[in-house]
Design brief:
mainly alpha
């Protein structure tokens, strides 16, 4: 990366700290994992408990949307300040964007390649475990399970498979999240630079928590 990138990165990070950005990203991943957990709890929940799970899932979804819009407001504020500061002209901005895009493309190719390798290994390990588990069951138990005479055994098997799939997915998400941490600053700077090209000069910043809160409420569905 060029020296100009690091100058711009330090300038923008003085407005939005890296720790706060990573914290918001971690919160979003945690909420998504919570939704997955609730999804796998539905088969084991009776009819009276399913409306509660649905309500909790809706609340998690609303909080996830709130965090996304809150991040957008902060990025929009930084973009407006950067645009008005005239730190780079349009040509310099486009050149820096091209440099960052090239670097991100290389990192994304490595992340996708390595995730594919890990996914193949995880699926092979899961298939081996399932095959081993199948061999430990008696033939009579398997036949009962297939013809639905042992519903409890069948449900237990599906629960184990569901949890195994969830663990594999969480492992891959965690790995991808760690790899993407190394590109977090570059993606942040790239977003601000691209937005600065298209943002209008008369745009106003939204400052203060409550101003941001009501702005999000008014644009909760449509976005901005």
């Amino acid at each position: 990366m060029s020296l100009k990138y690091y100058e711009i990165k330090n300038l923008l990070r003085s407005q939005i700290g890296l720790f706060g950005s990573i914290k918001n990203k971690a919160m979003k991943y945690t909420l998504l994992c919570g939704l997955l957990f609730l999804f796998f709890q539905i088969p084991n929940t009776d009819d009276s408990g399913k409306p509660i799970i649905l309500l909790v899932a809706m609340l998690i979804g609303a909080l996830y949307r709130f965090i996304i819009l809150f991040e957008r407001i902060n990025i929009k504020n930084v973009t407006i300040a950067f645009k008005k500061g005239k730190f780079l002209d349009t040509e310099q901005t486009k050149l820096l964007i091209s440099d960052i895009d090239l670097s991100l493309d290389r990192t994304n190719k490595f992340a996708n390649w390595s995730c594919g390798i890990l996914a193949s290994i995880s699926i092979f390990a899961a298939a081996t475990l399932i095959y081993f588990f199948k061999d430990t069951l008696q033939a009579e138990e398997i036949s009962k399970m297939l013809i639905n005479e042992e519903a409890e055994l069948q449900n237990s098997l599906f629960t184990i498979l569901g949890k195994l799939m969830l663990l594999v997915l969480l492992f891959l998400l965690t790995y991808y999240f760690v790899v993407q941490l190394f590109t977090y600053d570059r993606r942040f700077v790239n977003t601000v630079l691209k937005s600065s090209i298209h943002i209008r000069g008369e745009e106003n910043m939204v400052n203060g928590f409550w101003n941001k809160f009501w702005y999000i409420i008014n644009h909760f569905v449509s976005g901005f």
